[in-house]
TrEMBL record:
Alphabetized Gene3D superfamilies for the sequence: Aspartate Aminotransferase, domain 1 (3.90.1150.10), Type I PLP-dependent aspartate aminotransferase-like (Major domain) (3.40.640.10), Winged helix-like DNA-binding domain superfamily/Winged helix DNA-binding domain (1.10.10.10)
Pfam families: Aminotran_1_2, GntR
Lineage, broadest ranks: Bacteria, Bacillati, Actinomycetota, Actinomycetes, Micrococcales
Sorted UniProt keywords: Aminotransferase, DNA-binding, Pyridoxal phosphate, Transcription, Transcription regulation, Transferase
A molecular function (GO) term: DNA-binding transcription factor activity
InterPro entries to which the protein is assigned, alphabetical: Aminotransferase_I/II_large (IPR004839), HTH_trans_reg/aminotransferase (IPR051446), PyrdxlP-dep_Trfase (IPR015424), PyrdxlP-dep_Trfase_major (IPR015421), PyrdxlP-dep_Trfase_small (IPR015422), Tscrpt_reg_HTH_GntR (IPR000524), WH-like_DNA-bd_sf (IPR036388), WH_DNA-bd_sf (IPR036390)
Domain HTH gntR-type residue range list: 15-83
Protein name: DNA-binding transcriptional regulator, MocR family, contains an aminotransferase domain
Source organism, top-level taxon: Bacteria
SUPFAM superfamilies (alphabetical): PLP-dependent transferases, Winged helix' DNA-binding domain
Source organism (scientific name): Agrococcus jejuensis
Amino acid sequence: MDVVAADTLAAAVGARTAVGIAADLEVLIGDGTIPAGSRLPTIRDLAAAFGVSVGTVADAWGALRERGLVETRRRGGTHVVAPDASEFPGWASLDLLLASPDQALQPRMDGAIVQAMRARGVNAWGREQMVEPLRAAIAPRWPFAAEAWMTAGGGTEGLWLATVAAIEPGRPIAVEEPAPPGYLASLADLGVEVIGIPVDDDGPVPDALRAALDAGAAAFVHQPGGPFSTRHALSEARVDALVAVLDGGDASIVEDDSLGPLSAVPVRTLGAALPHRTIRVLAFCRAYGLDLRTSVLGGAAHLVERAVRARSGGLASNSRILQHALAALLVDQDAVGVVDRARIRYGARVSLASAAMRAAGLRVEVGPGSHVLWVEVPDESAAAIALSRRGVVVDVGATSFVTPQATQRLRISAAQLPEDEALLAELADLVARAASGALRVAFA
């Protein structure tokens, strides 16, 4: 049994609050830096090494116990608990289809909500599209000078409103592929003709965008961070090339930053060069929680004004409580630390899952900032059906493309995957067998 020294932990853990200490230790336990079975220092010794109160460390230990990561034995000290593979609830319990986040990696919202309820102006009569504390927190991190701002009820609604603001009757729009299936379905509901724009390693292909603009596209919708991409995050060189294609025309630009603070790559913009034609959507649901229900839209004034009118005829606005809560979370160092660690964990899940798939002989595509794995298969529909019979529910690649693809793929969300090599090898084996047609339904 290893005994972890207090000064060793103090050097490895940067946080000095109960929430932060617990979150840092969770990462160190999860990645094996502190192996299962290790005995941790006494609360008193660790408090002295950290320079914090005994109560702070006790609260951190309590949080780790609640998560099943440590146990305290009578007269035996506190030990890291070995993960029990038998506790894995099964693949059917995980969302591998909709790319929803892992709630265990999100910061607590209760403190921010309480703080928000006490904010000045809450429940004042009238609408406020964006409260000043949120604007103050967002504006310095916005990649171009926005002429106007608003909030919406989440990233999905924000993207829909930005799109409605940008489309024009009778004209198609250009959309980077692959795109979220739900978004493509919404465009179909709007009756909008969509021209798919393929990508290479640097981003959307300029010649394809030029052809779409020549065909009359009123807007270009793209995801510069590549959260859904098979291969790219938008490069600086490609920004210049796309700006050159768009410059001189009238097409609006819609930028979707759906991962927000969870993005592991620089999320570049066309708005710095074309601010009067760009509207950007920054989402926070994956980082902070779905019920925060607050995304931010900023950019060209006429596009933001159209988006405001598109939301219940201009009569709707986000709750000030939720806006103030987001503002509080964005500047709370404990919450920021939790999100920073979540970003690392999500990246590890993508890397581990990709390695497992490749070890099983599968060809996998994944962009540098993506939370989605694209696995090539001979017949995507047959493979998806075979997997679903084993409780593994994934999507087919075709739902994410407007343009028919020569390569068939399965789309697997990595956000909720376990960081367990044995379980990932099991999943990869199921996918490989489904791809080969060897995964059959067992009959008694």
